[in-house]
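Good morning,

Both structures are done.
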Amino acid sequence: MVSAATVFGFLLIMVVNTVLAAVAIRFFRLRLTTTWGAVVYTAVLVPLLYFGTTILLSGFIGFGGSGVQDRGTALILVWVVPFTLAVSLDIFWLPSPDEVELPDSAR
């Protein structure tokens, strides 16, 4: 039986990873001029963010220990689901990068 702390820990990691991925994907789509640049940066850098947050936050829930018997399912929950949610949030619910006005220069 899975404890409430394990469920809360997984939900915490999923929420943090979703927010980080959504912000990173949006940043790449707004700042990079090419479509493939945003795709490449997203495919390379978001998993690095996930690796760091998963290692940092998983110590609280014992990732792969007694709380979870199947590591594949755990990785799908903390990497694939948040990434899919972040991509769908950016593509379907946020305005297109062409519609967003960016400042000419930073002060």
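Second structure follows.
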Amino acid sequence: MKIRVFFYLIGLFFMGLGVTFTIKANLGAGAWDALNVGLSKVIGLTVGSWVFVIGVILMFINAFITKGKPKFLAIITILLIGFFVDFWMLVVFKNMFLDGMVKQVVSLLLGIFFIALGVSMYLQTKFPANPIDQLMISLHERFSLNFMVAKTIGEVVALILAFIFQGPIGIGTIIITFLIGPIIQMFSKPVSARYDLLLKR
């Protein structure tokens, strides 16, 4: 159980860090994060608060896709993700401003790395998934899509919504939209192998 909780919490911790790096890169955030930032600027509330609100909405959408019941335990996951995002954004990196394209690109790439690693880690635990990642799983289960395709579909939908709400869309958004799925796929096997090895100890 300790290993499961460790992977779960560290995975969400890394996700929050990755989201912050992609936003701070100022090259365009990931589609869902761009949506949350846009909603934060247009309506108010923190980015982390919108992570929670959008997550709750997606819980019901996922239930509709799978023709099942909403996974209400996922509220714990989205609360933690929202908390970690606000922790990194408003406490640790509140005054971080990147000057120069090299620093921005490095920040973007670090963000993609940590998001993909975080998703791969916490999904191993079988604890309630972030509704955004559950959308990927729901599409995978309902339509037999691989994770790369399912993740990309969700990202494109979020990209359209982010555009509507004037979120920070840029070249970084496009890069994240089409790279995050394949990188999660790439991390899945080695992370799963490490997780299984630790469980056997």
